[in-house]
UniProtKB/TrEMBL annotation:
Protein keywords: Membrane, Transmembrane, Transmembrane helix
Organism: Microbacterium ureisolvens
Protein name listed in UniProt: SRPBCC family protein
Transmembrane segments: 112-132
InterPro entries in alphabetical order: Polyketide_cyclase/dehydratase, START-like_dom_sf
Origin superkingdom: Bacteria
Amino acid sequence: MWRRVTLDVHLDHPPARVFRYFADPGTWPDWAPAVEMRRQVGDGPSSVGSRWSAVDRIIGPFRVRFEDVLEVVEPEERVVWHSTSPWNSRVEYACAPEGGGTRVRADYGGDVAGWLRLVALLPTFVLARILMRDFVGLQRLLDAEDARAHAGSA
């Protein structure tokens, strides 16, 4: 079942700080509520073609295992990830400076397989609200980093 959701979000931090979180799946469990684990497959720096073992929490005890593959990276501007089955999806995070922060356009699209098609049946506005929790988490994480830095310099 093919689904697409696009979010347009402002975060109160510059692209250099925001982008690095989208480009590093190892940080995703820190700010994305559904992400349980991301672990790079192989050694070396992450680059186009890098693969990450992934586990997401769906509803309650249900877990989904798959891989994320880095398709495109344009530092501080754009990163694209492909998730293998059962998500069969692609997410693009495009970052642009806006005021003192970052305008993020997140475009999620995919052909969800198996029992996850039940999730794909949710109305678009519900899926958007679920995905929006990631940005709330990232804003909180960046704000907390600022608070710690400010406390350390006081």
